Amino acid sequence: MGRIEYIMADKVGFFKRVISLFSERKSWVRQIGVAGIAGAVSWQVGDLLVKNGGVVAAIVCTLSIRISLHKSLREGFGQIIGTAIGASVALTAVELFNFGFISVGITIVMCAVVARALHLGEVASINVPVTALIVIGPGLSESTAIHRLSSTLIGASIAIFFSYFSHAKTPVGRSIDQIASVSAKAADLLAHMSEGVASGYSQQDAGNWLAKARLLIEEIPAIRAQSVEARGHARWFPNARRDEAQEIYIQGIALEHTVVQIRTIARTLFDSAVSGGIADSTQKAIAVALSAASYAISSRFEDTDLSFDDSHQSATSDARDASSALAETLIGDAKDADQEQIVRGISLAANIDRIADSLDQSSPALRDVITPDEPEAGKVLRISVRAQLAQLVKAISRRMRTIFRR
């Protein structure tokens, strides 16, 4: 009897573990569920509207749908451009060389050249030859190319529609969640540094702090991309508030500056440990300053309130006061302490001051310096249509002036 109960308990535990794999990843389950439904709907609608168009529609939908409406719009636009270019190049190649390895090779090469000439981004540049190969498949003709182009439009449109349901929250809400998560990790890391400095840390402890700080830095690009999406969403959707999205974007930049300073602090503590450790006379002041910075971060990002109230101001003021006290302690010990250690200590004080400036957004570096939205490689068009047209007009004008002068 006991063996049977043990087997049943083991099976129940196994099923609970399997269920937890999905219940703990609700966002991921929602995304793949939406993607699956979108692909199935694309197949059905493609077959209903275009003869044998379900396969192409489902493929394009799967390629286009992303984790958000903003990205799916971008991917769908890239698919449409890619299909138009691919269909034209494929029809021309087959017309000249018939269907075969020569026409396939020429299609791929020409698609890459055209994508480069139009300054398409990395994603769209890949989509151009992919959709060209879809179009150039067996049985290619003008009517078939039109059918596949129509199926591509259907698949991209359905992907854009269903991507709206990929997330339970708005882009601003997702940005807030990401900022809250990273800021909590940053505050916790500073708290561990403070405790370690107060009790006397080892080089191994400092190495662990530095490793965690580097991992925090790696989360910044995701915050940047999400806040950019929030601003883009606010521009196009009437139910979104532009001022709220802009403030979230500034908060993301402020957190980025904060995390960079934390990594610098971790590196400074590691260098100090390598050089023999921190002087006993400055341990307490450094620990207090790090603790104050940790509390300031927690106070600033612990809720979704965008305003900077008195409690937040008090926390950043405490961090500045602790930083000033640390600097005074270091200056007082300057005659007896090692010069390199004094320099590192002053560096810590400066880092904590910058954290406070970032948290209360008093630093001009946050608002007066233009921050790029995203890398060019992530854009469908590396250069906007307006800019490309302006360049083309200038080139034609220069050419015409040259001809007339002759």
From TrEMBL:
Subcellular location(s) of the protein: Membrane
Record-annotated Integral membrane bound transporter domain positions: 46-162
Topological type in the membrane: Multi-pass membrane protein
Entry-linked Pfam families: FUSC_2
InterPro entries: Memb_transporter_dom
GO cellular component, one term: plasma membrane
Transmembrane segments: 52-69, 76-94, 123-140, 146-165
Keywords: Membrane, Transmembrane, Transmembrane helix
Keyword Mitochondrion found: no
Main location: membrane
Protein's UniProt name: Unannotated protein
Biological source species: freshwater metagenome
